Amino acid sequence: MKRTNIVVGNWKMNLTIAESLELASAVIAELGSGFSGCEAGIAPTCPALYETGKLLASGPLFLAAQNCHYENDGAFTGEVSARMILGAGCSHVIIGHSERRQLFGETDEIVNRKVSKALKEGLKVILCVGETLEERESGITGDVVTRQVKAGLAGIAGIGDLVIAYEPVWAIGTGKTATSEQAQEVHALIRKTVSDLYGAEAGDGLRIQYGGSVKPSNAAELFAMPDIDGGLIGGASLNASDFAAIVKAAC
Ligand SMILES: O=C[C@H](O)COP(=O)(O)O
């Protein structure tokens, strides 16, 4: 099945509002007359979402948030809900990034509640999974990723608006990219897991991004693998021409 590649720039905790607007404008300029045959978006920090969203309104990039809470509102100091980011102009949200899991204690159960809430509110979800170096070296990559996928999707009736991002933790921000074969093997396993849960058609249609030190120099090779449908880009998304080159490699 032909799936449309999807590329997202995760800006993480970088850039003020003014800097975000500057980078978003530079990316749009680098993309020139736009692109066709793939989808691409950027995920600025929360304070920059609304203004950046206004800049993106005329296309071609969509706006994503990096996280959201699983309740609509309430006494959750420092948190932002799905309907708030939706109101700020987001169409997509990244959930369960390994930095959220490792640094902010997000468990599989919390990730699942967030996925469920975000989908219910009408957001498109990018669910992140991936093993640590220790887990890979212990030979349990498949078990870890399968557990994260199953737990993340527990109780979710349909996955039409969902993308999964496979991000081996050892490849994030380290300059160490998984080889395209290593990534392909895990992507195929994720697809099989989703097919087992939701049926072959849903599995075939699911888009699975790769993330972890994607650069203009390795993007095309990764995206050429049969089960890799684009990328979730960290460091390289902070450089307009690098990010635009990665988007073009996916189109
Ligand atoms: O969300 C993006 C990933 O964490 C990848 O980050 P990176 O491209 O800097 O390795």
UniProtKB/TrEMBL annotation:
Belongs to the triosephosphate isomerase family. It is found in: Cytoplasm. Its main location: cytoplasm. Pfam families: TIM. PANTHER family: TRIOSEPHOSPHATE ISOMERASE (PTHR21139). The keyword Zinc-finger does not apply. This is Triosephosphate isomerase. It catalyses: D-glyceraldehyde 3-phosphate = dihydroxyacetone phosphate. Pathway: Carbohydrate biosynthesis; gluconeogenesis; Carbohydrate degradation; glycolysis; D-glyceraldehyde 3-phosphate from glycerone phosphate: step 1/1. Keywords: Cytoplasm, Gluconeogenesis, Glycolysis, Isomerase. Homodimer. Its EC number is 5.3.1.1. One of its GO terms (molecular function) is triose-phosphate isomerase activity. Gene3D superfamilies: Aldolase class I. Substrate binds at N10, W11, K12, G173, S213, G234, G235. The active site is at H97 (electrophile), E167 (proton acceptor). One of its GO terms (biological process) is gluconeogenesis. One of its GO terms (cellular component) is cytosol. InterPro entries: Aldolase_TIM, TIM_sf, TrioseP_Isoase_bac/euk, Triosephosphate_isomerase, Triosephosphate_isomerase_AS. Involved in the gluconeogenesis. Catalyzes stereospecifically the conversion of dihydroxyacetone phosphate (DHAP) to D-glyceraldehyde-3-phosphate (G3P).
